[in-house]
Amino acid sequence: MQPSRMKTLPSTSLKVLATIFLMATALWRPAVSTAQEAAYRFDIGASLGMSGYLGDANSSNLYKNPGLAAGASFRYLPNTRWAIKGMLTYAGLSGNSADMTNVYPGGETYKFTSKVYDLSGRVEFNFFNYGIGETYRKLKRWSPYLSLGAGLTVASCQGTAVAFNIPMSVGIKYKLRERINLGVEWTMTKAFNDNIDGPVLDDLYQIKSSFMKNTDWYSTLMVSISYEFGERCKNCFYVD
To answer: What phi and psi values does residue 190 have, to the nearest 5 degrees?
Structure first.
């Protein structure tokens, strides 16, 4: 009886140890997966700030006559460095040539107010891998970024003017929480039209080939908040 007992004890112990190991593994796995940050494919946001103008009624001080600026954005986030953004922006613009040192023929002065609606597509580049997560992904909670794109401007000032545009932006973003982002962005937009400030100020210099003086520029400085959605993956491994 003694020898057979000695043979069965190790087998029972192994079964007990195996059962404990499987139970511990089952309990541990969910804890690991919930500790890891999920990645998201999309981002929707809103912006608010001020706008400025450079053109025939203001040639130097961009924000001499600031207006209200507001925007809505939608981003596709392929990875932590790049984003493709669609942006709809409203900007109130105004100017008065009486504030300028330039004098127009006959001593005339011009002033205007304009409502601008801007729809554009842009590509953003983050200087750092942006996000919250494990150290192996080398993510940072904040990042400066640059963006460049193309769009369409519709301006309302004594009529309607439509123009193609090129928006150029620099900004900084900060991840407040896993899905919530705060940002500050300055955008300078080149409009390929001289009617953004109204038909009266259309090509006052009569220089058809001038890139700087025959078209208008406008700018926005806005603070934004955005929310990420569309979970992409739980476990994304960084490759150096």
So the answer is: -95, 115
Mean pLDDT of 159-168: 92
pLDDT higher than 90, residue 108: no
CA–CA separation, 46 and 87 (whole Å): 10
Q: CA torsion 12→14→15→20, rounded to 10°?
A: 130
Determine how many CB atoms are found less than 10 A away from the CB of residue 98.
10
The answer to whether the beta carbons of residues 56 and 201 sit under 8 Å apart is: yes
At 108 the three-state DSSP class reads coil
Nearest CA-CA partner of 178 in 68, 43, 71: 43
**What rounded mean pLDDT belongs to the chain?**
80
- What number of other Cβ atoms are within 10 A of residue 233's Cβ? 11
Residue pair 91/118 in contact by the 8 Å Cβ criterion:
yes
Q: What is the spatial distance between Cα 220 and Cα 151, in angstroms, rounded to a whole number? A: 15
Q: Give the model's pLDDT for residue 60.
A: 74
Looking at residue 4, its pLDDT comes to 45
Enter the pTM of the model: 0.75
- In the chain, what is the straight-line distance between the N-terminal and C-terminal CA atoms, in Å? 63
pLDDT above 50: residue 29: no
